[in-house]
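Why should sequence recovery work at all? Because a backbone constrains its sequence more than one might expect. Tight turns favour small or flexible residues, buried strands favour hydrophobic ones, and helices have their own preferences. The token representation captures these environments compactly. In the example below, the structure is given first.
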């Protein structure tokens, strides 16, 4: 997939009247821009899901893929930490049942089967469009840091490497990234690379109105996006 194919994915979604990309579409676009995410497949039956999991390797997470479900956990559409083919098959059926119960009219495309990213320091990288300045880039630590403390750094896109490093250092919780209280330091270069790729992504694809790479797991070596949400406007 090249940048033209990324545009094709976005234009197809808009032509279908969708205002958000499906998670597998958003993650394929991430990979195209060099933003790492664990390997994944889309399954359309429980046995299909088990076969995908065997191929990817355990543990895996299963998540509903539907154009009508943006917040998957809210409708029982996510089951994580699955370690056997039986667990995967029953999770598949359970997820479909949950989503049907919460949203009888939701169109179901399938279920995403993804390798579990090990737990780690969670950060978020995102973008929102400002009416005046266009796409902006946001960086913060995950969880309460962003939700309660609003500890985030913003820049107008496109940004350069120096800006990405400044963003990381200017959040109040920066010490969480350098290693403190028994948690190891994280790979800041890997985070900078994701911030820069996110900047290129939203700059080159102006239909992306909002993007959330949340959570992004940061490790001592590397970082991986676990959930990718992209909202569109024509
Ligand atoms: P939602 O649409 O509800 O935000 P997510 O894709 O964020 O759904 O999944 C919910 C939670 O499940 C995530 O916040 C994360 O904690 C966990 N999770 C999802 N995918 C993975 C993964 N590949 N590896 C590890 N944990 C995951
Ligand atoms: Mg999420």
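From this structural description, the recovered sequence reads:
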């Amino acid at each position: 997939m090249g940048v033209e194919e990324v545009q094709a994915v976005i234009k197809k979604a808009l032509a279908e009247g969708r205002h958000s990309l499906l998670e597998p579409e958003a993650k394929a676009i991430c990979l195209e821009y060099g933003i790492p995410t664990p390997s994944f497949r889309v399954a359309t039956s429980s046995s299909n899901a088990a076969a995908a999991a065997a191929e990817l390797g355990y543990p895996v997470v299963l998540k509903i893929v539907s154009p009508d479900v943006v917040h998957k956990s809210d409708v029982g559409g996510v089951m994580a930490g699955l370690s056997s083919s039986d667990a995967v098959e029953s999770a598949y059926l359970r997820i479909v049942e949950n989503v049907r119960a919460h949203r009888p009219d939701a169109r179901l495309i399938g279920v995403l089967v993804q390798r579990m990213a090990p737990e780690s320091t969670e950060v978020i990288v995102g973008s929102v469009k400002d009416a005046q300045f266009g796409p902006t880039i946001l960086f913060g630590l995950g969880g309460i840091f962003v939700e309660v403390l609003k500890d985030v750094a913003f820049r107008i896109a496109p940004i350069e490497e120096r800006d990405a490093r400044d963003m990381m250092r200017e959040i109040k919780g920066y010490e969480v990234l350098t290693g403190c209280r028994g948690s190891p330091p994280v790979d800041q270069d890997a985070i900078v690379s994701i911030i820069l790729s996110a900047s290129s992504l939203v700059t080159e694809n102006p239909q992306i109105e909002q993007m959330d790479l949340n959570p992004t797991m940061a490790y001592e070596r590397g970082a991986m996006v676990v959930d990718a949400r992209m909202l569109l406007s024509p």
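A few observations help interpret the result. The chain has eight helices and ten strands.
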